[in-house]
Amino acid sequence: MNDFPILSLLVWLPIAGAIAVALLPAAVSKVTGLTVALATLVLGLVIALNYDVDGGRQFEEVHDWIEAFGVHYAFGLDGLGLLMVLLTVLLVPVVLGAEWLKADDANGAGAKAFVAWALALEGLSLAVFCATDVFLFYVVFEATLIPAYFLVGGFGREGRGAAALKFLMFQLAGGLILLASVIGLYVVSAQAGEPSYLLKDLEKLDIGTEAGRWLFFGFFIAFAIKAPLFPVHTWLADTTEKATPGTGVLLVCILDKIGTFGMLRFCLGIFPEASQWATPLVVVLALISVVYGALVAIGQDDVFRLIGLTSLSHFGLITLGIFTMSTQGGTGAILYMVNHGLGTAALFLVAGYLYDRRGTSLISEMGGIEKVAPILAGLFLIAGLATLGLPGLSPFVSEFLVLLAAFDYGWYVGAIAITAVVLSAIYVLWMYQRTMTGPTSADLEDTKDLGVREIVAVAPLIAALVFFGFYPAPLLDAANPMVGDLLEQVGVHDDPPAVEGWFRFEGTSEGEAH
């Protein structure tokens, strides 16, 4: 399997599918797109089944691209990359299924464009998570903005054009800053000998204290905008408010993960000294994001804007976990990235179902839905409880690990971080109360509950939230070795978190009884 370019196939399959959807008649675009997305999901599962959790970076492909500058077409997967790949290949078919009946015009051309851009974003995001050459990473990092811009600006509600432009301006600013650091890496590596952008070469490179700190900030600022993190977060709420629920999932649950992925892969991996030096500042920014995001979310009347701002708080916790420089924090952050993707995707999509039926996203104009649409209300409640980290649902495990790491870092850090638990309960339960409970108005009495297609679309997300809530060992098994290697690079040594159960996944596929 390692000799076959399976990662290239994984990346190029959805991109080829996007081109095919764009060229095919609109009548078959949705079927073709969903077929390609499901085929990509199957390929991702094949990769996962052949992945050795203790085998380091695997499925590597390295080919010369721009030899004079040390640039390579290079792919590879470790535990972090694998989990992000699996999250991506799961969410895209879920989104396409959930948005199946939605189109901007009667002949389906709007749906055709949405499917094509969604597949393009999937392929480019997979390339980001697989890239092991910094220059290649930068190219696909910037390329993801093209489908993302058209998904926000082309679909959604009035004002989406301005929201798309704001999103693009923030992301391009971060990309330009990142480009300066990428160029700086070339200069440093060239001075040390033969220039190279390969991660395995840069991780061994002695960059120097001053240069390393400047280059670190270039990478970190770009990733903080992408994540997002306070104070460069202001594009987030506008985008999620104006975009479609499916686009919100693709942006918040996949694209934004590139930010925290990059902090782990590049900030800690290439600039370990600078990462430790900047930790106090990053921890402060993360804590502000945690509290500020939650407080602002409480006051929102638009359900999609509220969900977007909850993600600001959650990304603050993820960043905090990363920069506690501990195995518990790093592993908790990686699990948080996966679990946030599952829970927030479910919340966005079920809120989209609610919007379709109610005709408004304003919470103040809703109420009494649970009496006429109990399945919708039940799924909305489960997704909301996952968002607030209820024990028994998968986000609880990751949140618990991050909070443990925060208290180990400093009791005051943990005390501030844990306010997120209380505040999340307020905005989630209050949102549910205002939208679902209370008297049912006459205009809601004929509201239809969720259909089979809508239930099937979100069922994988709900199932994953419950399964990994009770049995997180597969996620831990994938994350722990990568975090251990990364912290060794930084110079930190501690014990990884482990979860014992009735069985554990060892190696690739077989469980072993305890």
Describe the structure.
The chain is mainly alpha-helical and 514 residues long. Helix content is 71%, strand content 5%. It contains 22 helices and 4 strands. The strands form 2 sheets. A two-stranded antiparallel ribbon has the order 1-2. The protein has a two-stranded antiparallel ribbon with strand order 3-4. A hairpin with a 4-residue loop joins strand 1 and strand 2. Helix 13 packs parallel to helix 20 and helix 14 packs across helix 18.
Summarize it:
By secondary structure, this protein is mainly alpha-helical. 71% of the residues lie in helices and 5% in strands.
pLDDT average, as an integer?
87
The string of secondary-structure elements, in order, is HHEEHHHHHHHHHHHHHHHHHHHHEE
Number of helices: 22
Number of E-state strands: 4
Structural Rg: 22 Å
Helix content: over 70%
Could you give the distance between the termini?
30 Å
Query: Shape from CA axes?
Result: globular
Q: Give the amount of beta strand, in percent.
A: under 5%
> Largest sheet, if any?
2 strands, antiparallel
Briefly note the structural class of the backbone.
mainly alpha
Give the strand order, joined by hyphens, for the main sheet: 1-2
Ranges with pLDDT <50 over ≥5 residues? 103-108, 500-514
